Amino acid sequence: MKGDSVSVFGGVRSLRRSAVTLGLAAMVVVALPSWSPADTSGFSNGTASASAQAFKVNPTASALSLGVTFGISLAGYTNEVAKADARGIDLGIIGTILAGAGCDGSAPTLPANQQPQPLAVDSRDPGAAQGKSAPETFMGNPVPGFTKTVKATSAPLADAGVTIGQLGQAAAFTISGATSSARTEVIKGNIRQAVATADIGSLDIGGGAVKLGGLHWDITNHTGADSSTAHTFAIGSAVIGGTPVPTQDPAAVIAAANQALNPIGIQIRPPNFRQVNEGYTIDPLSIAVVPSSTRDQVSGTILGGLQPVRQQVTDALLKASCKTGSLITIADVVVGSITGAGSFSLELGGVSASSGDVKTSSLLDSSLSPTPDLGSSTNELPATPAVAAIPAIPPGAPTIITNKKGAVQGRRLAKPIGATSPGRRGGMLAMVGGIGLLLLLAAIEGDRRMMRRAERTHSTTEG
Question: Which of 268, 261, 178, 189 is nearest to 226 (CA)?
């Protein structure tokens, strides 16, 4: 009887151990992460950004630049959070100077809240998916001819745009029909797309000496299932010295325009297509005021004769209020930039786009800086990163990007470790886990009953 009890006890104990082992194994399997077959592609939304500007007026003197940018469009997303930012007028350093407290501790000359403000949305904001539109304002009043639009969703999608009617001075230059737009999104479920465009309807330089129309910049960057970059710069029409010229070759158009503008000290500089870190850029078309002996001689004579009067006026203004010092500095830079004491440039267009996986790095890596917030209300844009020109262009070769879709291939970014999308638990694994738990409970109950039976058998034997 005792031997039979021990045998039964050993068999039950062996069965109990097997059940416990199976139950624990099933519970461990359920606790581990799992992935469904739909996640094997490894695609993630990643990140994308695009930016465009309509034009920038940039006077410089004594290494001080007072650039004012018109029509800035910014769009970007990271994973499912998208942001769009549209700026009709960005005063740059001028806005910073005028928004500072007065030299006597008085209120600023032009407070920041009275300056043009960006229109920005975040996909997490109420109404962001429906989009917003607003005119540009200055000192609380609408600026005619400016319209800003923005939209952002968690698709993800970010879209920003600015339109400008007409600006300029007929004797120098006029710009009509300027627009900029930027858009980032995921298309076809597995392609990150960043698109930026800029257009100038018409440009008149030197009181009709050169007229250009239909200037167009656009760049499209793809990563994911498609990795490519297409880019375009085109001139739609040109009239130089009253004579229409063909525009099939933009380089030839610019060369002819420079022949007409060089006598008055103006030079057009063509855009280049460049790689900027992991993205791509088409530079603006720059119209620069360059040294001209005829112009500089005339302007030097005029300014020399006005210098005593200018000094008297300046002293009187500073005596009345030290706050006029900022305005005098700005005026000196603007005048100096077009009279040989500095430089002046009008930068038309300019676009950039990039996309890729979200990069991961060690927390100890201080070489990476945080992504700038597109919703910032500051007047300063992020500093332009160092760039490497591609491809190298030999001396004398045209540097214009024609209006043919480029075949430049964007670099496919390496997929970071851990970038696979989270999987889903359930189904068969949930059932296995449940069975394992039931087996474990059954083993515990069986062990309890077996121990009681063994105690009764032992008592009977002793008796």
Answer: 189
What b/e readout covers 267-278, taking b as 16+ CB neighbours within 10 angstroms? bbbbbbbbbeeb
* Joined tokens for residue 213: 């129309």
**What string of DSSP letters covers 315-373?**
HHHHHH-TTHHHHHHHHHHHHHHTTTSEEEEEEE--EEEEEEPPP---TT-TTPPPPPP
Nearest CA to 82 out of 194, 6, 246, 170 is that of 194
Beta strands in 248-309, from DSSP E residues, in sequence order: 266-269, 273-276, 279-282, 285-289
| Greater pLDDT, 363 or 155 | 155
Assign 93 a pLDDT band (cuts: 50, 70, 90).
confident
C-alpha span between 306 and 335 (Å, rounded): 13
Rg (CA), the chain: 35
DSSP letter for each residue of 170-235: TTTEEEEEEEEEEEEEEETTTEEEEEEEEEEEEEEETTTTEEEEEEEEEEEEEEES--EEEEEEE-
* Identity of the residue numbered 384: T
CA distances from 45 to 81, 206, 422 (A): 10, 48, 13
Give the span between the Cα atoms of 163 and 176, in whole angstroms: 10
pLDDT in tens, 106-123: 788 889 999 999 999 999
Amino acid occupying residue 268 = I
- State mean pLDDT over 182-208: 95
Cα–Cα distance measured from residue 110 to residue 119, given in angstroms and rounded to the nearest whole number: 20
Element (H or E) spanning 144, and its range?
Answer: strand 141-153
pLDDT in tens, 3-34: 444 444 455 455 455 555 545 544 544 444 44
Q: Domain coordinates of the chain in residue numbers?
A: 2-34+425-462, 47-286+344-358+372-389
How wide is the angle at C-alpha 74 spanned by C-alphas 69 and 76, nearest 5°? 160
pLDDT of residue 220: 98
DSSP per position, 219-263: EEEEEES--EEEEEEE--EEEETTEE---SSHHHHHHHHHHHHGG
What is the model's pTM? 0.66
220 DSSP β-pair partners: 195, 230
Residue 437 and residue 96: Cα distance in Å, rounded? 67
